[in-house]
Amino acid sequence: MIHRNSSVSIRSLARRAATHFFSSARYLIPAVLATIALSNIVRADITGFQNFTLKRSDTGTPPVLVDADTIQFTTGPNQRRSLWFNTRQDISEFTATFTYRANGIGASGNRQGLVFVMQNDTDGINTLGDPVGGLFGNSGLGYFGIQPSAAVTVETDTGPARTFTGFYSGGVFGGGSAPTFPVNAFDGSEIDVTITYDGSILSVGMVEGSNVFPTRNYLVGSLEDAVGSSSAYIGFTASTANGGANQYISDFQYKVPEPSSALLTAVGIGALIGGRYLKRKKSRAASSPLAACDATAG
By CB atoms within 10 Å of each CB, which of 117, 148, 194, 226 scores lowest? Predict the structure, then answer.
């Protein structure tokens, strides 16, 4: 049997269901958005040399993009250059890999070389280091003065014809570099460089054919403190002195860990629970005697 007020009851139930759905969605949607946002922030890979910005102080032959994965960064003497990916990247944890090769390294009283850099300088993707005297001559590897920042160097010294590496921050060279023996850029061979950071330790490893430079670990603590944020512009600087050098970078990759499904789920649930808690708190406040008194006052 169908009662005459059945349609009214059905409409009432429909309104209640819709109200419940949208009320729940009001708290569910932020949870979903929070999960998506975390996924987008954590995941940000770079492969090759697309979407980069180049700066240079010299008028020599410009860098040559050999192909999508290889660039001849320096092409002669007395050059100072930088290359930045156009969007800031997460630096909380990462692995950066690239292949370095140099030839035509001319005799020079100063070190030449390449620097992998993470920076938040006020000039952003237009940043280029200042000249500096001393060991690095007037070029400063293109890194000197970039701050806040953190960097790993690949240095060539024509005096002993050896290669060095070091970790630096704040756009300042200090603390010394270590020789990368038996890996040596003066051989003219390709050197595979791997830089990893796990949240406290930054590790640098190099392989040149059968020659392996044992991984060097730097207890750097929080890179966020050095760089000023959990994200930064990623790229390279390089320089040559009066001797000059052709320096190549290829197969560059910058990768951050995939966010675990458990982490994403926890963020989503946390946002949902927080929203429902605020809803219940608001409901209790509205039904309290004090709220009732406030509502009828005046």
Answer: 194
Identify whether residues 267 and 250 lie together within a single domain: no
Residue 67 inside a domain? The answer is yes
Cα 256 to chain centroid, rounded? 8
The span from the CA of 159 to the CA of 156, in Å, is: 9
Host domain of residue 262: 12-43+258-274
Residue 189 is given by DSSP the state -
Beta strand 231-239 pairing with 89-90: antiparallel
Name 153's Cβ contacts closer than 8 Å, sequence gap at least 6.
113, 114, 115, 116, 141, 143, 164, 165, 166, 167, 168, 177
- In Å, how far are 29, 158, 234, 235 from 218, measured between CA atoms? 42, 26, 19, 20
Q: What share of the chain is helix, strand, coil (3-state, %, to 5)?
A: 30, 35, 35
The token pair at 95 is 């692995």
Chain position carrying tokens 């200090």: 174
Q: What is the pLDDT of residues 157-204, one digit of tens each?
A: 988 999 999 999 999 887 679 999 999 999 999 999 999 999 999 999
Give yes or no: residues 267 and 236 share one domain: no
DSSP calls for 237-289: EEE--TT-EEEEEEEEEEE-PPPPHHHHHHHHHHHHHHHHHHHHHHHHHHHSH
* Number of structural domains in the chain: 2
Among 151, 104, 66, CA closest to 247: 104
Question: Quick check: 100 pLDDT over 80?
Answer: yes
Q: Which amino acid is located at 75 in the chain?
A: T
The answer on 16 and 106 residing in a single domain is no
Query: Residue 223 domain-assigned?
Result: yes
> Would you say 142 and 129 are in contact if contact means Cβ atoms under 8 Å apart?
yes
